[in-house]
Amino acid sequence: MNIKKVALFFCFIIAIEIIPMARVAIAKDLVCGLGFYYGEQVNWRAKNLKIVPTDNYNMKHDVLHPYIGFAWDLAELGLEGTIGAFRFYKNGKSSSVFATGITLIGSYDFLEINERNRLYAGTGWGLSYWNRTPSIKLMNNKERPIITQLELGWKNKVVNNHLKYLKVSYRFTHTSALTDRDDRGVNLHGLYLGFFF
């Protein structure tokens, strides 16, 4: 018996089995989306910021997140942009800063409720730029703020010719290197609503 021929035969059989599986595994769809993120600063962090030693301080945000990435059956990986306003409230006065940035985001559908509904978890890391505020010296643009993000949410596959699915989630975001004094960061949390095409 020719061992080489036998080995080639088995390799051929294995290839026939593996190639279709590999094609399914690497199959991906290009996904574009637009999300809206609304929330406020985590209170315990605001009270610990020595630069604003008052309980009458808070920060809220309205942010748009354009998105482009790839989606597999259970996972996604893509780039999410940040365009938005962050409003600071201190002793009845408000001051706004504007931020832009980009974040690499990955997510995984860990629980399938039914054919159309799933629960997912995600994380992200990115860079951003915030303009300075004259009334509240908070932004330190010498260090580009680094975004670290955690997310837990619900995904609904929409039966529609235009939409692929929508997402509703709770997000927690830490943005570092923001203050003039040191590398203190700001913790934000809120609700995210996204539409994906």
How would you summarize this macromolecular structure in one to three sentences?
The protein has helices spanning 3-26, 43-48, and strands at 29-41, 57-71, 75-90, 93-112, 117-130, 146-157, 165-175, 186-196. By secondary structure, it is an alpha+beta fold.
Report on this structure.
The chain is elongated. It contains two helices and eight strands. The protein has helices at 3-26, 43-48; strands at residues 29-41, 57-71, 75-90, 93-112, 117-130, 146-157, 165-175, 186-196. 21% of the residues are buried. β2 and β3 (75-90) form a beta hairpin. The protein has a single domain (29-196), classed as Porin (Beta Barrel). It is an alpha+beta fold and 197 residues long. An eight-stranded antiparallel beta barrel has the order 1-2-3-4-5-6-7-8. Helix content is 15%, strand content 57%.
Biggest sheet character: 8 strands, antiparallel, barrel
Q: Work out the number of β strands.
A: 8
Count of discrete structural domains: 1
Helical percent range? 10-25%
If you average the pLDDT, what whole number results?
73
Tell me the series of helices and strands, N- to C-terminal.
Answer: HEHEEEEEEE
Helical element count? 2
For the record, the CATH class is Mainly Beta
Radius of gyration: 23 Å
**Strand proportion:** over 45%
Spatial order of strands in the largest sheet? 1-2-3-4-5-6-7-8
User: Distance between termini?
Assistant: 57 Å
Uncertain runs are 44-56
Oligomer kind: single chain
CATH topology, anyone? Answer: Porin
Give the class from helix and strand content and strand pairing. alpha+beta
- In the CATH classification, which architecture applies? Beta Barrel
- Any idea what the shape is? elongated
